Amino acid sequence: MRCKLKIIVAHEIPSTQATMTTLRLLFLICCIGSFSACKTTQPAEAPANSKVLDMTKTPSLRDVGRNAYILVDDRPFSMAEFMKAFRPEDIAVIKAMRKEDAVNKFGPKAADGAVIMISRVRAKYQNQEKLRKLSSAYAKLLDDGASDSDFLYVIDKRPLFKKIDARLYDIPAEAIKKVRIKNQSFVERKYKDKQKKWAIMITTR
């Protein structure tokens, strides 16, 4: 409730400073896991030898200015447009790009740095397409009408119960060694979950 109140206050003060404050709040919310995850650290569920990306050295929103160039799913947004279009829970991944790097990549419009975000919708789609290419059994489940709500994703024997979209997004396809499908009886017996129909067992290299 406290986080939502702060977002509302920022909406009521549609200034550049208020928007950057909201972005920083969103970044903090992502990092502490109140909503979705951002690419800042190696996921807690992943073992130390996992090939999940370690983003601990990623620039933070403190490295960008109040007129940062904002991209969501590769589409540019003004700060006002971003505030109207998205809620914190709509974002799966958020990262910052320092001013020099942003200008090199996007040109003068990113002179104040860049904030790059991936929506949960985009992350979910890309995750499914990535795993679809690695497992024909997984692809068949999707083609037969199954969805993420039916799946318990397990990375290196560790189940994901939160921040699922972001944590799957963090794993590049080349880091995945194998994808196996386990049925509902396995899910219930192993993980005590009676809601999920299949376990998607992901082993990283």
Give an overview of the whole structure.
Helix content is 39%, strand content 20%. The chain has eight helices and eight strands. It has helices at residues 2-12, 16-32, 79-85, 99-106, 120-134, 136-143, 164-169, 184-191; strands at 69-72, 75-77, 91-97, 114-119, 151-155, 158-159, 176-182, 198-204. The protein has a four-stranded mixed β-sheet with strand order 2-1-4-3. The chain starts with a helix and ends with a strand.
Attribute tags:
205 residues, alpha/beta, 4-stranded mixed sheet, 8 helices, disordered N terminus
Integer average pLDDT: 78
Number of helices: 8
Radius of gyration: 18 Å
The portion of residues forming beta strands comes to 15-25%
Helix share bin? 25-40%
Number of strands: 8
Order of helices and strands: HHEEHEHEHHEEHEHE
Measured between the Cα atoms of the first and last residue, the distance is: 40 Å
The biggest beta sheet is recorded as: 4 strands, mixed
**Uncertain segments:** 1-16, 28-57
What would you call the shape?
Answer: elongated
